[in-house]
Amino acid sequence: MENLRIIPLGGLGEVGKNMMVVEYGRNILIIDVGMMFPESDMYGVDYIVPDYDYLRGKEDRIRGIVITHGHMDHIGALPHFLQEFTAPVYATRLTRGLIEVNLRREVQKRVKINTMAPGDVLQLGPFKVEPYHVCHSIPDTVGLGIETPVGLIVHSGDFKFDHTPVDGWPPDMAKLADFNRRGVLALLSDSTNSGSPGATPSERLLTSAMEDVFRDAKGRIIVATFASLISRIQQVMDVASNFGRKVAIAGTSMVKNVKMARQLGYLEVPENLIVSLHEIHRLPPQEVAIMATGSQGEPRSIMGRLATGRHSSLRVVPGDTVVLSSHTIPGNEETVHRVINQLFQKGANVVYHPLSPVHVSGHASQEELKLLINLLQPQFFIPIHGELRHLKQHAALAHQVGIPERHTAAVENGHIIRYDQNQGQLIDHPVIQTRGIASQEVLSDLVIEAEDIVRRALKGIAPTTTPDVVEKTVRREVSNFFYREAKNRPTMLVVAMPIA
Ligand SMILES: [Zn+2]
Ligand SMILES: [Zn+2]
Question: 211 and 336 in one domain?
Answer without folding.
Answer: yes
